[in-house]
Amino acid sequence: MSIARSPVAENGSEVNPFEFLACDNNEQQLWEEVYLRQFPDAQEFEALTLEEQREIVAELQEEVDLLEEETTVFLRHAESLRMPRVPNALLGSPTNRRKSLSTLLLSEPLPQAPEDSTVNENLVAASGELGGEAIVLSSSSVRRGQAYSRKSVDTNEMYVTLEDRVAMLTKERDRLRQQREKDEKEGEHLHELLTATVKEAVGRSKELRLELLQFKREVLNEGSSTASSDDLLRFMAKRYSMQAKYLDKLNVQCAAAERNITQTQQQLRQRHAAGEAFRAIDFEQLRIENQQFNERIERKNLELVELKGTSTRTVQTLNTLMDALNGLTAEQNRLRKDLKNRCEYLARLQREMVSVTSEADAAERKNATIKSQHEAVRVPKIEHYLAQKAEEYELQKAERHWNRKVEIAGGQMRLVQQQIRALARATQPTRRWCKRTGHQMRTPSKSHAKSSPGTGESVTLFTDTEGNFEVETEKNVSPVVGGSKALLNMKRKK
After folding, report:
1. CA pair distance 278, 284, nearest whole angstrom
2. 127 three-state secondary structure
């Protein structure tokens, strides 16, 4: 990239091409390296590889660009010394710049070698501190009406010394720095102005929207979108009063700002009169102190960042240890509760062991007492006891059988009685039964038991009230169902 024209940074400010001049101690050494650097000749260049040739060409291009920038600096320096102005047509290209410099500084025509990267030997050196205050021209100058004559000039006086070059470049660097600061200030001012303009435009647009909404709400009719004259006049009067109040408020603020400005200017004049005004050296000292304070602030900020990192790591370690401590504390509490429960369980077991031991002793004593009593008592033999138990069991079994037989006989007797009553009611005609019903209700049926003398069996006889029917039943004898049916048939035949 050529540096013949001033580079421009991303933010639009001009970049200083001499930023590599870090300090005053190494400037002369850097320029000596630039001017005394040697490049390979044609034969050596042809012997190199393609990559090396490209690198050398790139370095040579950088040297040429640097020398072109140096030529531009010389032209500016010449203009600053109120030299005759060079036409704009001569400043179009690096070659024209060299020609213009030669036109200004030479007393003879420029040699026909535009590709040379250094000033020709016929150039006149500009000498003096910090760029020199005078330009030493050739001893021969073209005077009107006189013939041109060449005079011999010392070769050492025809070049700008390295110290003067460094001084001029340093001065150019300072000028570019000042220009950059000026551009930055102008850019900041323009940015503030544009920001204020945008804010004002945004605020004004909001106000217009609010006024439009208020106009639609207060003046326009919702149905027809038309406005009456009275509403419009009322709205305009109200808006005029609001604008007047706002204007009065702005006038008050402007008056206060003017008073503040007047007071500040008066204080400044008083300081000037008292000799306490700030001078350039004061501002430079304040700038240096501000720079030192900024450096200290940066160091403190770095220390603060380190301390924040250390504190963060410490807090993280502390949190980890606190978590571990909380876990151990919870484990300790759990173990303490477990120990307490186990101690209570152990005490309860000990009490139970004591009580069981005492109960065992009492049981042993009681057992011994019972054993001694058992040995002292005389009991029958086991065979007799078993025989008695077997006999008792047989008797209980026989008793159950007889009880069951009695229950069965009673049931049979009740069943036979029911059958007899049913047969008696079924065999009588309906009328006779109705006539005799009253007498039967008053005279119950007769039954008596008789026993045969030979066999000793008891027989029960059932007869009705008239003694017409007689039924004989024997005790402890199962009823005969067939006999009941024969009686029923006999009744029917009769």
Report:
1. 10
2. strand
Count CB-CB contacts under 10 A for residue 124.
Answer: 21
- Cβ-based neighbours of 306, under 8 Å, separated by 6 or more: none
Of the two residues 478 and 72, the one the predictor is more confident about is 72
For residue 401, is pLDDT > 60?
yes
CA distance linking residue 280 with residue 300, whole number of Å? 30
Q: Who contacts 343 (Cβ-Cβ below 8 Å, separation ≥6)?
A: none
- In DSSP notation, 136-183 reads ---S----TTS--------GGGGS--HHHHHHHHHHHHHHHHHHHHHH
434-441 contacts: CB < 8 A, separation 24 or more? Answer: 436/465, 436/466, 439/465, 440/464, 440/465
What is the DSSP code (8-state) at residue 135? E
Task: Give just the sign of the alpha carbon dihedral 215, 217, 221, 223.
Answer: positive
Tell me which DSSP letter residue 459 carries.
E
CA pair distance 19, 22, nearest whole angstrom: 7
Report which DSSP code applies to 39: -
Residues shown for the chain:
494
Residue with tokens 């030997």: 121
Task: Kindly state the tokens that stand for 452.
Answer: 């045969």
Asked whether the beta carbons of 102 and 78 are under 8 A apart, the reply is no
DSSP 3-state helix, strand, coil percentages of the chain (rounded to 5)? 70, 5, 25
Strand partners, 227: 220
- Residue identified by tokens 């301390």 is 307
Tell me: the pLDDT tens digits for 446-466? Answer: 555 555 444 454 555 555 555
Q: With 0.85 as the threshold, say if the pTM is over it.
A: no
